[in-house]
UniProtKB/TrEMBL annotation:
Keywords: DNA-binding, Transcription, Transcription regulation. Residues 42-61 bind DNA. This is TetR family transcriptional regulator. It holds the Pfam family TetR_N. SUPFAM superfamilies: Homeodomain-like. Gene3D superfamilies: Homeodomain-like, Tetracycline Repressor, domain 2. InterPro entries: DNA-bd_HTH_TetR-type_CS (IPR023772), Homeodomain-like_sf (IPR009057), HTH-type_TetR-like_transc_reg (IPR050109), HTH_TetR (IPR001647), MftR_C (IPR041347). Residues 19-79 form the HTH tetR-type domain. The keyword Transcription applies. The keyword Transcription applies. It comes from the Bacteria.
Amino acid sequence: MSTDLLTDESCGLRERKKRETRRALNLAALDLVEEKGFAAVTTEEIASRAGVSARTFFNYFPSKEAAVIGTTAEELESYAAALEEDVHGETPLESLRRILASMLAPSSIDKELRARRRRILLGEPSLAPALVGNNIRIENALTAALERRLGVRPGASLEARLTVAVAIAAVRACIEHQQNGGSGRLERNIDQAFERIGAGLR
């Protein structure tokens, strides 16, 4: 077996272990909030429930709010890197459609977990500022990536922020439509939404 193959395998194992730890911390945070209420939960308890040290907790999430929401800085960086890459023949809006779809893919987050997280967030008003802040972080990271892709200075053009904001709003609208008993499959509704806004955002 070659050294390169060993390296690839070890990197794959490390990445899988990191994903498993991240998920364990997120699930532990959700479990504890459901059991005790958000205010009564500590980062130490979340770490203990997930079977890791308090120090390890902070390698993945900066706060207990972040652990409940589940988005990591590492994930933000990967989404931004994917958008910054100029795929031949793909418009920025099409790239955003692909990247936002990957956030919703079963391999990223299952429907039951998403619904559970949403229920907990809606039931804990104190988490609202953290959720808003998380959404802003995602939007800012994607906007900065698109600015780099378009070769414009940060804030020099409205195009990047408008494109990202509209794309995120389209996906959010489709999710809300689905969760409120709307017709159609989520993936197809997202496709249709992007087709409609695509005519105005080249």
